[in-house]
UniProtKB/TrEMBL annotation:
This is Creatininase. It comes from the Bacteria. One of its GO terms (biological process) is riboflavin biosynthetic process. Its cofactor is Zn(2+). Keywords: Hydrolase, Metal-binding, Zinc. Belongs to the creatininase superfamily.
Amino acid sequence: MAFAFTANAERKIDPRSADGVACKKNRYNCNETPNPLPRVDTVWIEEMTWMDVRDAMAAGKKTIIIPTGGVEPNGPWTALGKHNYILQSTCDAIARKLGNALCAPVIKFVPEGDIETKSGHMDTVGTISVEQSTFEALVTDTVRSMKAHGFEHIVLISDNGGSVGPGLKSVADSLNTAWGSKTVLYIPEYYRSWGPVEDLLVAEGVQKPGVSDGVHDDATVAMIMMVTDPDTVRWKERVSAGLATIDGVSIADKDQTVAWGKRLIDYRATATVEAISQAIAQDAR
């Protein structure tokens, strides 16, 4: 606490200071000091330095995407963090397609059911759930942080269903009303894009309609997660055990599965970018 107080006091004295340390102590603590290192090829602010973010915003990247995932059961061989792993690929693709956007860290903890009664996904070991109020408070403070730094459009997306989407809409509506603007954009089209990519597999003959293993998993999930990290769907172990199928679709051919995953990511990213662009255009009117 003493350090925080000192840092805030120094900033009041010298507004040039950054990084919680006085500018006078070292020129790399000064807001205006040029970044001595080359630009990094990432859209994730947690992978960037404060100078990287500053320079990206100065170059026009004034949109920030806040993705929300979850920790829940997803079939017998898919990692609990399914939504979080998927967002590593989809948010990255969305930000790059927009061209003027960055991604905030994935918010991994969302409402998954009542903790005491073990409703919803809380009936399965490993699930982490938070109260709706906790979730909305976390999203709210993340949005407020991004606005304080000067981001002009703050996009909320969820890879998870349930009460997550309504919670994001509630946060967006509340903050936009308080600020008298449409700074915060909840984009439900991102989550809705799950349906069309499943239809695409059927249309392309990759999957037969109506075939289901009856678990909380499907081929589109496996394909996208394979792009992020094959270990998240236990690809090697499943191939060895003869279990490399889901809903009648084989994922044994790694290259083919990853290629499909990239196609599905591009599909979901394109649909989301269109929705974001439309929302921003409406805000400008």
